[in-house]
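The material for today's practical consists of a large collection of protein records. There is nothing in a record beyond a sequence line and a structure line. As an example, a complete record with its sequence and its structure tokens follows:
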Amino acid sequence: MPALSFAPAFALFSAIGRGSPAQPLRTFIRTTGYKLRPPRPLAHTPVVRQAQDAVLGSGAAGPHQLATLLCERRKGPVPTIVLGGFVPDATEQVFLLRGSLLSRGSVYYFNYPRNGFSADLLFAQLDDLVSELSLLHDTPPVVFSVSFGSGLVLEWLRRTRAAGRHADIAGAVFVSPIGCVEDLLAPGEAKPATLLGRAVKPFLDAADGQVDPRHVEKSRTIFNRMFGAGAQNKAALTALMTPGELRHLHAAVMDTIARVDARGACERMRALNAFASPATYFSQQLLPLTHAPALILFAEDEESVIDARSPTRFALNAAHRAYFPHSECRTLANPGGAPVQHASLIFHSANFLPPISRFYQGLKTRKLLQVA
């Protein structure tokens, strides 16, 4: 298992180890609702399959590379599609934001396959699901993405525009976006600047998917120990989740760590390596990527995971309204406490939830837009 697959996990669990300063008043806003209604996302069988079937029929991807689609259905005008980072799965990525998202409508989760990956097939699945939800709901879906998942969404939007189309979405949320491989490995640098970059380089170089088993096991061991060490901070954990919730999270993350194989991880890296850097398509032909509202959230301590010269971070910080005319780009800080970490939606949920809630509150349904 490549270390890249654990970038979000690194941020999440190291935050516990340092003692996240969550206070009872702040964590009162936690919205999992697990005590009254445990999460039971069900498999979603897509009604629209045209794009997916076209990719599978062409032989460009195989069924083992299909993402698993899950859904929690709720009443509400705005459905959400969640694409997580490498770890944890989307269903765990929004662990403490789930209730807030469900208050707006149904939530659909993309969980990436363990033993393979195809960006073309995932984009086709996303095309189909967006089409399906746009037909079924008052409002098209919001696409909510984290870390590597944000790279997928940026590339999907870029390819959609390059094909002369506009994605039918109500909005997009990008949390700690990693949009291209240069965000992790600076071009021309003999030695990657970050520990994560040094860990993932061998997997990027393994074009045939053959990785030294010792490196795979070393990565698994490192992240198992990181989680175990973080879990010792019982005070921080008690403020954030119940023992049952922690057991659920621990089991889910450990399962992912154990089951994503070298081929699956290398194919994810290969996909990331093929994504265009946002700086390369700064042009009137492709921009804006969408006119839908967008929220871009970076963490104050991104550089523990991504390179300080990340082109995605630079482009979106400097010119986010060129890519998304109706957008807000913020860097979240935690004054007086542990710094907000890359993609730390669990242990820094109190920092991430307020801007995300305001974003959803500002969305207009189709009916309101028609009246206006």
Remarks:
- The first strand starts at residue 42 and ends at 43.
- Confidence is low (pLDDT under 50) at residues 1-37, 229-233.
